[in-house]
Amino acid sequence: MVTPVLAMEMTSRPGERRFYAELLTLLGAPQRPRADIAQMEQAALRIMEAIGVKVLVIDEVHNILAGSYREQRIVLNTLRFLSNRLQISLVCFGVNEAREAISGDVQLARRFEQFTLSRWAANEQFEALVASILRNTPLRSPSVLAPVSLRRILQVTEGITANIFHMVNGLAIDAVESGHEQITDEAVERWQPEFDVEAAFA
Questions:
Q1: Who contacts 180 (Cβ-Cβ below 8 Å, separation ≥6)?
Q2: How far is the CA of 193 from the CAs of 21, 42, 100, 181, in angstroms?
Q3: Virtual CA dihedral for 37, 40, 45, 51, nearest 10 degrees?
């Protein structure tokens, strides 16, 4: 099966073995407990070439900073190696510290163009975003929210894209667990955020 875009999440404690283990799991590859890093690397390269990966999307890339300096360098070298060897593009997402994480490798950092997602404001674009998320939320009954609920979502999430998705996803889970299968204005009003606003960025 051709998979031109492959998305993964950077492990919370980065390291070469953990990175390749996560990648191989995502690729659905069987892993031998005693496989060394070279074998894991070759397996990942072989599968990615076979399925035609052209873009590797890495979320939570700021997690690189959780490792020691040596671990950070190894992971950054791994990313550069994959990009060079497979001739693929890398797309990285993360909070503000993601820039710092990538800048640890000058050659790698030069390949990236940085974009900052702006915070959402109370306008038609924000309403369209929420409506689109609601439409694509797999609930049995359609969810249509009043303007006051939209303002509440904007206030709670501070207009941060990741927080908006997190909130709607949490509301959808609550809707399923309650048996209502619909996100209501009352549910939005009761919602208490679990995400760390300070850790997110626009």
A1: 141, 187
A2: 32, 43, 27, 20
A3: -160
d(CA 94, CA 146) in angstroms, rounded, equals 31
Q: pLDDT (tens digit, 9 = 90+) per residue, 45-100?
A: 999 999 999 999 999 999 999 989 999 999 999 999 999 999 999 999 988 788 88
Is residue 105 domain-shared with residue 128, that is, in the same domain?
no
Model-level pTM? 0.66
188: nearest Cα among 148, 160, 158: 148
- Contacts for 194 with CB less than 8 Å, ≥ 6 apart: 166, 170
Q: Quick one: 30 and 67 in the same domain?
A: yes
Angle 83-86-88 from CA coordinates, rounded to 5°: 55
Q: How far apart are CA 23 and CA 17, in angstroms?
A: 10
CATH code of the domain in which 131 resides: 1.10.8
3-state secondary structure of 163: helix
13 class by beta-carbon count within 10 Å (0-12 exposed, 13-18 middle, 19+ buried): exposed
C-alpha span between 35 and 64 (Å, rounded) = 23
Identify the H or E element spanning 131: helix 124-135
